[in-house]
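It is worth pausing here to work through a concrete case rather than discussing structure prediction in the abstract. The textbook approach is simple: state the sequence, then state the predicted structure, then interpret. We follow exactly that order.
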Amino acid sequence: MTRILPGLPPYGPPALSFPRPDAFREGFVVEFTSTRGDVWVANFAPFGLRGLSAVYPELGPSAVLVVAGGAGFIIDADRRKLVREIRGIIEHCWYQPELNAMVISDGTYFEAFNQDQTLWQSPRASWDGMRIIDRSSMILTAEAYDPVTDRWLPLQIDLNSGNITGGSYPREMLPVGKKRSILARAYEWIAGGKFG
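Step two, the predicted structure:
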C-alpha cells in the first residue's frame, strides 16, 4: 500500500532518499507499507516542479512505479530498494490491464514493462511531444509534433507489440546500431538539434 504525503514527516525514522541516498531537499514524499505491515517513507528527487507526480502500485509491492516531477523510479517496497531508474522524463503513464504492465512515454517513444521485465520499447515516434487522443483499446491513437512543419501528425501504436504507424520522426532516421545517417544528422540540425 502507498500514500502520497504532503511533506517529510517531522517524527519517526528519516525518509530514504532516491535515487541517491545522500542528498537533496524535500521532493515527492511517499509512504509505503510492505506486505509484512512495515511502514517506511521515501523522498524522491523530482526532475522538475511541474512534471507528472504520481504513484502506480498496480504491478505489486516488488515493482511500484513512482513518478516524481517526471522522473521515474521502480521501487521494491518490501526490500526498500530502487530496482530501476527510468531514463527520460515521463510525460504519459498508465496501467494497461490486458498486458498487466505499465506503459510510459517521454513524448518521443513508448515503453511497456511488467514487474519482471521490459515487454517492448517502441521506436522513436516524435521529434518532441505527443498528444494522446484515445487509449480505450489495444491500439493507441495519438498525435506527434513535427517542429519542421509545425504540425501535429497522426500516430498509432499497437500496445501488444510497440509497433508504430505514422508519427513525426522519419523511419529512415532511426539509428542502425549506434550510428545515425548523414540525413538524420542534417534533419536534426535543420530542426534545431545538434549536428555532430
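Step three, interpretation. The two ends are 47 Å apart (CA to CA). The longest strand covers residues 139-146.
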